[in-house]
Design a protein that fits this description.
This protein is about 50% helix and about 15% strand. It is α+β, with helices and mostly antiparallel strands. The longest helix is centred in the C-terminal third of the chain and has 66 residues, at about 625-690. The radius of gyration is 44 Å and the shape is flat. The model is unreliable at about 255-265, about 440-450, about 505-545, about 690-720 and about 730-740 (pLDDT under 50). The chain binds adenosine-5'-triphosphate (ATP). This is Kinesin-like protein.
Length: about 775
């Protein structure tokens, strides 16, 4: 374990503007920074306020310090420790614009301006490529924390137009209080180029997701983490370490006071999580504090190990010595002094490779089992498998070929293996014997001291094994040919699909946005509702429950219904909205595709520019006009996207509203129809009763419909209550049991008509009985 306090460095940002009195103490090898703040007469004549404020650091980097120096002094030792298996953290702290991003990531204009991240990556991969005695694996993650929410900057599946578009990262804590970050991509990077690509992807996401409104770069914290695992060749121990490179949010505070004012008065941080960071720092720097409030914020939770834990941590305080920034700069220095009091206990993160450990333990268990079986006399009776047989054959061959007479054939306590090896040895002896005697027909003469029958045994066994091998070979070739056939089928289907796609690209769903698809789906469902056919107004379930007659009645009813026109109007509007939504959805999709193209162009352009810088062909122009043009286009497309998706959203709300209206109309219509149905039924029955005898001649269409479906229980699944109402009405309509009354058209066939009349009579009696019973 290495016990070490957090190392603190300060970097002064170069400026051409007037500076305050500040002074780097060169006698102390540049480890002290002093600010001179003259007393303000406005504070009165008697004023014994301090004028000199002195802060000590491991080293002060003055305005002339370049990126190379910063890397060599600060980052290289940390990177070396990470390679050795210790965790490391470097974090930059300072007010907005003081040079945190410049120090951690670097400037975008000159190759020499590369910051700590690219230089560290370069250093690590250079070391890794040189060291052939170790196997290294590296993974990268890039997290942005804004307003206490974490965002994954490396998720390739998400298009980041706003910070909120990026996948949200959440914190999980296991029972050992280890922090796990859910949803944070951990991407493997085999070399420097891949790692730089990831850094670029993260920075692009950060840049594109950033808007002037949220000022994400100033208000957010970014943690770029390199996860390194190393293993010596052939060794079972692995070392896994992490290096966090942290660009914190601007540390400025509200209630900033002038230099001559109350400099010492603590103001509040604008960024809440920096306030929590300070609380953690204070708690850690105080002795005997049992509780450290790491959990208060996401940033302190993620950096828990870096602050007072298993890590070698370094802080870079970035300050500006311009007069207007002096108070903030002193605040930064004061914060650094507190940080310097924190002690970390860095551990060598070494553990046994779990995969190798499992193999090793399995082997040990097997050998112990075999030993136990030998001691207890319980031998395994199952046959050796193909793999074991092969291994034993190899072992015997090695044993026989070894010129050393002392060499042993180690088979463990498994008697099956011992027997098999004896058998193999015997076969080999026989083969050699046959060769010496010039017998080439494959059937060796019996060994000395062996009967013919005994000699045959191993030969038979060998034959059996050969048969098994042939059998297995056959099986394998059958399976392979089956596999090939299946593969061919899949290829055929794929090529057919591709053909289909080429013939009619519009059917390819992947090119459409989910919104457009959704709209289309809804439209499909909706256009299937043909309002000229009334029964479509009733849900499928209910249609199946309605008799044909009632369905026809419903059509008639709807034709004359007062709401019909409104319903049809709504339907037309809805259809129109669906078409509009589909068009807008396609537009949104197009914009998305365009932005993707532009992003690719941007990436290529930046790579080209970086290459030019490398080869020294880069012009000294301030900005790249091509890049600017692409960025402007992205911006324009972003605006388009926002507008179109906004319209789509509005349209969706309207569609939902119209669909709701349609549902309401449906319910109302059904209810009206049911009432009408009952009333009409009662009216007709009453009418028919008055006109007994003439029923056959006076049959209204509805009465036909009613009577054609003479189900005594009614045609639908009405409630008990309604059935009772119908029964009452019919009863009222049928005061006598006159069988001559019926509106049922008779068929002319005597027997059928007699049956119909018998049925009517029975039904009538039944209705009367139930009425009396009541
Ligand atoms: N040491 C330096 N040498 C040259 N330029 C610098 C240096 N430090 C900062 N700058 C420049 O100052 C500007 C602001 O720096 P930078 O963006 O790094 O500040 P910051 O502290 O990260 O701000 P923020 O909190 O808003 O992210 C940039 O244009 C950067 O190039």
């Amino acid at each position: 374990m290495v016990k070490q306090t957090i190392q603190i460095f300060v970097r002064v940002k170069p400026t051409k503007k007037p500076t305050s009195g500040y002074f780097v103490d060169c006698e102390e090898q540049g480890s002290s920074l002093e600010f001179v703040v003259p007393r303000d007469l406005a504070d009165g004549f008697i004023n014994n306020k301090r004028e000199n404020y002195n802060f000590r650091f491991q080293k002060v980097f003055d305005q002339t310090a370049n990126q190379e120096e910063i890397f060599e002094t600060i980052a290289k030792p940390v990177a070396d420790n990470v390679l050795a298996g210790y965790n490391g953290t470097i974090f930059a702290y300072g007010q907005t614009g003081s040079g945190k991003t410049f120090t951690i990531t670097g400037g975008a204009e000159h190759y020499n301006d590369r910051g700590i991240i690219p230089r560290t990556l370069s250093y690590l991969y250079h070391h890794i490529s040189k060291d052939s005695s170790m196997v290294y694996t590296t993974h990268i993650s890039y997290l942005e924390i804004y307003n206490e929410a974490g965002y994954d900057l490396l998720n390739p599946q998400h298009e980041a137009y706003r910070l909120e578009d990026l996948p949200r990262v959440t914190i999980m804590e296991d029972s050992d209080q280890n922090i796990h970050l859910k949803n944070l991509s951990l991407l493997q990077s085999a070399n420097e180029e891949e790692a730089l690509d990831l850094l670029f992807l993260g920075d692009t996401n950060r840049m594109i997701a950033e808007t002037p409104m949220n000022e994400a770069s100033t208000r957010s914290h970014c943690i770029f983490t390199i996860h390194l695992c190393s293993k010596e060749l052939g060794s079972a121990t692995v070392r896994c370490s992490k290096l966090h490179l942290v660009d914190l949010a601007g540390s400025e505070r509200v209630g900033k006071t002038g230099v001559g004012g109350q400099i010492l008065t603590e103001a509040k941080y604008i960024n809440l999580s920096l306030h929590y960071l300070e609380q953690v720092i204070i708690a850690l720097s105080e002795k005997n504090r049992s509780h450290i409030p790491y959990r208060n914020s996401m940033m302190t939770s993620v950096l828990r190990d870096s602050l007072g834990g298993n890590c070698m941590t370094t802080m870079i305080a970035t300050v500006s010595v311009e007069k207007r920034n002096i108070a903030e700069s002193m605040s930064t220095c004061r914060f650094a002094q507190r940080v310097a009091l924190i002690k970390n206990d860095a551990l060598l993160n070494e553990e046994l490779d779990p995969a190798l450990l499992i193999v090793r333990l399995k082997k040990e268990i097997q050998s112990l089992k075999e030993e136990l079986a030998l001691v207890t006399g319980e031998q395994r009776s199952d046959k050796l498998n193909q793999e074991e047989i092969q291994q034993l054959e190899e072992q015997v061959n090695v044993y026989l070929e070894d010129p050393d007479n002392e060499v042993t054939l180690d088979l463990g306590p498994d008697m099956r293996k011992i027997h098999f090896c004896f058998f193999l040895l015997k076969v080999k002896v026989r083969e050699r014997h046959s060769a010496q005697n010039g017998v080439s027909n494959g059937s060796s003469p019996p060994l000395k001291g062996m009967s013919d029958g005994e000699d045959r045994k191993p030969h038979d066994e060998l034959q059996k094994l050969r048969d098994t091998v042939t059998h297995r070979d056959n099986e394998i070739s059958i399976l392979v040919s089956m596999l090939k056939r299946e593969k061919r089928k899949v290829q055929d289907v794929t090529s057919q699909l591709a053909q289909l796609h080429n013939q009619n690209p519009s059917t390819c769903s992947s090119s459409r946005s989910p919104t457009a698809l959704q709209a289309e789906e809804s439209e499909k469902c909706d256009t299937s509702l043909d309002y000229t056919h009334a029964h479509h107004f009733i849900t499928r379930k209910r249609v199946s429950e309605l008799s044909v007659g009632k369905q026809t009645a419903f059509e008639v009813f709807l034709r004359d219904h007062e709401d019909r026109l409104t319903i049809e109007d709504n339907r037309a509007v809805l259809q129109q909205r669906f078409v509009e939504a589909k068009t807008l959805g396609e537009q949104v999709n197009q914009t998305r595709i365009r932005v993707n193209e532009l992003k690719t162009q941007l990436k290529i352009r930046r790579k080209q520019m970086a290459a030019q810088v490398l080869t020294g062909n880069q012009t000294e122009s301030e900005s790249d006009s091509v890049e600017e043009r692409i960025l402007n286009q992205i911006e324009e497309q972003k605006k388009n996207y926002t507008i179109t998706s906004g319209c789509l959203k509005g349209l969706r709300t309207e569609i939902e509203h119209l669909q709701l209206l349609r549902e309401k109309s449906k319910v109302k219509l059904q209810r009206d129809f049911e009432n009408w149905w009952i009333q009409e039924g009662a009216r007709l029955q009453g009418h028919s009763a008055e006109n007994t005898g003439s029923s056959l001649s006076h049959v209204s269409p509805l009465s036909c419909m009613l009577t054609r479906n003479n189900n005594p229980k009614g045609d639908d699944t009405d409630t008990q209550e309604r059935r009772q109402r119908e029964r009452d009405m019919r009863q009222r309509a049928l005061p006598s049991a006159d069988l001559s009354f019926t509106s049922i058209p008779l068929t002319g066939d005597k027997q059928t008509d007699a049956e119909i009349q018998a049925f009517i009579r029975a039904r009538h009696n039944l209705l009367n009985c139930t009425g009396e019973a009541k």
